[in-house]
Structure formats: C-alpha cells, structure tokens
Amino acid sequence: MEDLESTDPTQPTDLLYRVIRPVYDEEKLGSQLHRKDRAPLTVRQKLTELFQCSSDRARSVLFSVLPILSWLPSYPVREFLFSDVVSGLSTGVVQLPQGTFAVISLMTGGVVVREAPDSMFYIQTVNGTNMSVVLDEVARDARRVQVAMVFTTLTGAIQIVLGLLRFGFVAIYLSEPLVRGFTTAAAVHVVISQLKYLLGVKTRRYSGLLSVIYSLQAVFSRITETNVPTLLLGLSCCVFLYVIKDLNERFKKRLPIPIPGEIIVVIVSTGVSYGMALSNDYHVDVVGEIPTGLLAPALPDFSLTPNLITDAFAVAIVGYSMGISLAKIFALKHKYSVDGNQELLAHGLCNFISSFFHTFVVTCSMSRSMVQESTGGKTQIAGLLASLVVLLVVVAIGFVFESLPQTALAAIIMVNLLGMFKQFRDIPHLWRTSKIELSIWLAAFVSSVLLGLDLGLLVSIAFGILTVIYRTQNPHSGILGHVPDTALYLSVDEYEEAAQSEGLKVFHFNSSIYFANSDRYVSSLKEQTGVDPEHIQSLRKAQKKQSRKSKENHTLVVCADTQRGVSHESLENNHSAEKQQPPQSGQENGQAAGGAVGADADSEEAVFIESFCSAVHSIVLDWSCTGFIDSMGAKAIKRVVKEFAAVDVQVVIAGCNGSVLDELERLQFFTEMKRSMFFPTLHDAVLHCQRVNPHVLSTDVETRV
C-alpha cells in the first residue's frame, strides 16, 4: 500500500492511496490472521479484579462519589463567586413558601393520608352529660410525620441501591426532544399553578389526569374574584423582572455583574407589603408565619415498611426521572455531561440521610432550578447558599419574610420560566429535520400536560422506545453502485456517478437483522433487487408443464370411430389436414386463435425467465450497518441464500463485523453456510463475484484506487 501526494504545485495537496492486494473472504482472512486468545475470566478472577485496591483506584472512586473534590480546589472565585451568591440568595428566598416539587409532594401525600387517615384519630370526649367525637389533629399529624419519614427512608435506600446497580442507564432513553417536550409541559404546569397567586384567587390544588384543565377552569371560574392590588403588584413585578433580564442579556458584556432583579423584587415587595399593610388592609396573600427551629433526629418506624415499599419504588423512579430530565436540559444548554448513576446516588443519599430529620421525599424543582440558572448560578455553591438561606430563615430570621407577597414570588417563577416556552421553536425546526423526533417532542408535551408529569414521563419514554422499534423495523434500504476508479459504493438513487455492475446487485439495509424486521429485510431485498426466487420458480414450473403439454401434442393421437373402426394419425398430419380444410365455424376459429395466442405468450414468458435469470447472477448484502443478528434473522438469511441459489443467483455478504460473525457462530449458522461467502469489504465481494462470472464481467481482481 502506498501513500501518495499530488505533485502539481498549482493544486492543493491531496492525500492519495493505492492498494494492490488479493481479494479476501473471511475464510481466507481467518487463515492468515491470528486472533488473540482471550480466556474467559472465572468468577474468582472477576471478584478479585472488582475488589482490587490501589491508590489510583481509591482516588478515582473518591472523586466519582464526591465530584466536588475535583472542582472545588480550582474554583474560580473572581469569575463565579458573586454570580453564585446572587443566585443562591434569590433561589433561597423563592424556596421559602414552597419547598418541594408538586408531583412528588402529591404522591407522598397520597401515601401518608392512606396510611394515617382522619378516621383513625377520632376520639370521644365527655363534657358533663354530653359526649362528642373530635379529631385528634396532634396525634394524626405526628403519625403522618412518622409515615413520611419511613417512606422517605425507603425511597432513598431504593435509589442508593439502584445507583450502585448502575440503574442510571435509563437516562439514555431520555432523548433531547423528549426532555425538551417534557420540560415545556412542566413549565405549563408550573405557570398555571402560579396563576391563582398572581390573581389573588382561592382554588384547590389539582393533580393527575387533566389537572391542567381543571386548574384553569377553577381559576377562570373565579376570575371575577380577582384581588386587584394583588394583580397590580404581580404585574409590576413581572414587568420589572422582564426588563431587568432583557438588560442583563443585552449588556452582559458591559455589566461587571448581572443586576439581581429577583433580590430587588423580594426586598421592595416585602417592604411595600409591610409598610402599607397589604395583607390586612387589601387582603393580599403573603408568606405568613414561618415555623422556626429544627426537630431532633429520630429513627423511622420500620414496621410500616411492608405497606410502603411498592409506593416507595414508584416514587424513587419518578423522582429520579424528573431530576435527570432537568439535569439533561441544563447539561445540553451549558455543554457538560451528566452521570445518571451519580444522580441516583445523590438523590438517594439526600432522601435517606434527611429522613432521620423528619423530612419527606425531595427531587428537583423546575421553577427553583430555572431561578438559580437564570440569575447566574454557575456551580453547586449557589445551591449550597440557597440551602443556607432556608436554614437561616427557619432557625432565626423567618419573621423578616412573613410579609413577602405570594404574587411577587409567582412573578419571579413565571418570568424565569419564559425561557422554557422558547422551546416551542423546536416544532418548526423538527418538522423540517426529523418527523420522528417531532412526534417524540409532541408526545412528551401532550401526554405530560394532560396526564400529569409522572404518567406523562412514563408515556413519553415508552413512546420514544416505540420509535426506536419502528425505525429498526422500517429502515432505509436501497441498491448501491460502484463509483468508478474508487472502492466506494454509494446509493444509485442519490448519486449519478454510482453505477451498477452488469448482473450484480449490491443491497444495503440500514439496520440490524432480528425477529421484528427479518421478514421486512427479505421483502425489501426482493423488491430492491427485482429478484423473487419464488416467482421465478413458479414460472419455471409453469414452463415445464407447458413444455410437457407441447410434447404430448406431438405424440400419436388415438381416435375412436364406431362406424369406421380405429385409425392412428400423428398430430402433425392432423395439423396438415386442418390447414388444408377451411374452418367449420366461428367457435373453431376462436379456439385456433386462442391456441396461437397462448403459445406465443408461453414462448415470451419462457424467454423472459431465461433472460432474467441470466441477467442477475450475484447479489451482495451490505452488512456494514448490521450491529447484531438473532436466531430469526440468521434463519431468514439462510433461507434467502438457499432460495436464490435455487434460481442460480449466488448471495454473498460484505462488511460484517466480528461480533456479528461470533453471533452467527453461536447460532450454528456455519453448519450449513460457508465462511467463504463473507467478505471484509464490499469491493472484495464485488470483485469475487466478477471473477466467478468472467463471461459477464472483468476478471481483474486487483484493487487499484
């Protein structure tokens, strides 16, 4: 093999190569190349390798479990600290009135109410001669806290186990269109949930199927009860925040730091609310009393485990799925990667450890995440500061934010979610580029809006998997042609230079071959090559049958005549006599004409069969896109090879990778087929077919490119 460069100084230098070598098939290649001996590891060897310890491995494990150790020492204080501080303070303030994601809260609440219903805590009281039944709310709430603690402990433990078992691979099924459609639907849910705070109306919280529609119906049914001061304050905050964000975006290169619009809104609206007594005089909803202090840690009541384990598993999966979806959104936007298993461990540890401090299940919140990102948060330092703000408020200064209007918080959340609605621009783009990805986006959005985020996410994942199955069942296929003076084979439908060799078809199928598409593979092969062995066989049988009839018509015919006895005449003499005699009737004319037409048709069909069979002598199957094959696929290929061989068309296979060959070996494919029918490249296979049929094509088997 030679590497050559263009010697013409006026032309740009192009690398060229020329290869002169024999044509290889897999049998010949295997005899000249030696595969490495790789003895399978025993269970003991695998365990030894798994638990082998070294300083480098310990360091790698430590950094993978605690990635903060890898980036915190090199944290760029001047570039990131101020942005993280502003973001952390803004997010912490927004976190005060509502601390968890609605879907997980509702799922947890459903379990808690089921295990500790009001009916369990009615007690009888006697006041003199009167007896009454009252609800012991203190005992009920204490029991519900215990249920929530155990439920959170189990959820965290399940997530930790799944993380250790590397269950985070499910994140690969969250494609970008799915995640963007899902998060857009989540933004719709959050914005609609904030409308009642913006308008100052009282409605119940809905969840599950059609909750968005019910929530909108509830808000608009009470639209006449809108609190005007609440609405004016909320709209003012929205306009102010939108202007600030627009200024930050336009002048981000000139501004030394972003303008902290959210903090300004919180401080000013709290001051206005307190100074003007908006809550008392104008009935504007405020955050209200914030409980202070932390409860002492305690052990959960694990006797409740049997009743909660199934629900805990469901919440563990849903919580992780929602968290990883948001993580992938920001990862795509800011160009970094997300480790699904690490996310599982993080969620699990957070839930498991915090459960001993009387908490319940947590996951990522879209609204707070968007606030943190849009206010300039760069690292986990922003999240840490947001947590410290909440801790500080709970422990010491909760009273400062008691006058904070709910409508101001709703404005902060809604304005920060405007960026999510820009994802609707994906629809025209996907319409032009990929209809299947558009269907995934729409399915994720519609299902998540109508069914709720938990069921919608599951439906979206299932739909995404179905599109993968559809693509492998209905892949692109076609005929490839040779580009002159190269070893390249391209689609004859797309490239004018790609020419088919006489008598040779190169068939390309853009998928693996397995039970779901093996029939499709065979039908596409016959359709694209124009060779249908079954049809050719049936035509040949009809030809043979017709030939036998023709021979019988040339034998002696015995005619019985009761009056003149028996006479023996040959059909040829009969035909001569008939030619000399005029036709006796119109019916006889029709029969004669029909016989002539039938004979001509049979003759033309026979000529067509012979010419067609001689025109296509070889078919090359391009397996360069075949990643795997199962037993059904292997049986289909064996059937194809035999059927085509029966009509004198040889089938060879090119571009098959080693793993597929190993699969065929395990499937005992080569007990009936030869390895010599496999070729490492398309050009090897084509040159082999040319040599086997020298009367049609060139016998030159050297590759010169």
Automatic annotation (TrEMBL):
InterPro entries to which the protein is assigned, alphabetical: SLC26A/SulP_dom, SLC26A/SulP_fam, STAS_dom, STAS_dom_sf
Cellular localisation: Membrane
One Pfam entry name: STAS
Biased composition (Basic and acidic residues): 568-578
CC annotations in GO: membrane
Lineage: superkingdom: Eukaryota
UniProt topology in membrane: Multi-pass membrane protein
Chief localization: membrane
UniProt-annotated stretches for the region Disordered: 533-554, 568-597
Name recorded for this polypeptide: Solute carrier family 26 member 5
GO biological process: transmembrane transport
Occurrences of domain STAS (ranges): 494-689
Transmembrane annotation, as ranges: 147-172, 178-199, 259-277, 312-332, 344-361, 381-401, 444-470
Keywords: Membrane, Transmembrane, Transmembrane helix
